[in-house]
Hints:
The chain has helices at 2-24, 184-191, 209-221, 241-250, 266-277, 295-306, 345-355, and strands at residues 39-45, 52-60, 66-73, 78-88, 91-96, 104-111, 114-121, 124-132, 141-148, 155-162, 169-175, 195-199, 227-237, 255-259, 282-287, 312-317, 325-326, 329-330, 336-337, 340-341. It is of the alpha+beta class. The strands form four sheets. An eight-stranded antiparallel beta barrel has the order 1-2-3-4-5-6-7-8. Helix 3 crosses helix 4 (241-250) and helix 4 runs parallel beside helix 5 (266-277). The protein is globular. It starts with a helix and ends with a helix.
Amino acid sequence: MRGLWLAGRRWMVIGSLTLLAACSAPDQPATDTIPPPLGHYEGAVNMPGTGARIGLELRKMASGQLQAELTLLGEKTTMVPLGTVRYRAPQLQLEQAGGFPGHLTISALREGDFLRGTLQLDSLRGEFVLVRRGDAAPRPWREYSVRLPGLSKPQPATFYVPDDTLTRHPVIVAWASAAPAHLDQVLRLGQAGIATLLLPPPAAPTDSVVAHATGAALQWLRRRPEADTTRLGVWGRGPTASEVAMAARRASANFVVLESVEVMDEAGSQPFRALGRARIPVFGFYAGRDTTLSVRESSRRLRQALGQRRGVQVRVYDLARPSFYLPGRPAADGRWQWPQPTPGLWEGLEQWLRQLN
């Protein structure tokens, strides 16, 4: 009997300890088991002036990685891809992948179906509360990781195809200006129905690897069913532009876009004279406030090299900054104005592209 009594006491002690442990356990599960706050969120952010409305799309990819965009809600909704997405319950951290000059970050705490936090654009800071309004909308393009063949060292690239009803699209081959790639160029071209084959920033911008990889990209696109092979172009920027121009001529590109190209002497003009002789349409543009090169001299020499012919335009946007964005600021009526592209730039480029058809 005494043995049975001692055994009963042991089980009572064990049961009490178990109950105590259960009562003292936290109500929340471990942070690695809490799913991220996926979905479409909307709310107001109190930027300087009267503030503005924003949205946030947060989704989980098949790879398990999180993907997000900031949407600026207003007369014309604008999407800003966010390249860095980190979630450790209840903290959400986001960082832009292009779309604005400067540096944009978002820090938020999850509170049920709400996100409460701050948005910071350089030194400007605003607080927000966002509420979940349903599932996240998909990005407006299909994305493919590829490796270009025909090179001594395989070249990685990313193919962005607008997610619309067309079966074939014009394509622009471009080199990213930063890593991770700034996706605002991809987004704006996609809104015009143009696909982008984006290569990572070259390790040696003046090396002939730029020309070889650009040529290989054009050849690869000619075998792709998504590409309209009668409208394949390249986008050259800054010091890589001469190499891109040489590849465009050799691979018989259908058009060329040149951004902020320095042309200071006859030797520097030669790649662009070759484009003129090949009668390849060219759209060149400069920022009038760019102090890193002589805008007036370079634009004059580029016009001379390309020649006066149909399909050639060289424009200087006098008030534009090198980023081709106006900074964020309160407008004259007191409303907050997000950073905006240089007025007329994208409209002019789209009009020029339509005239090539």
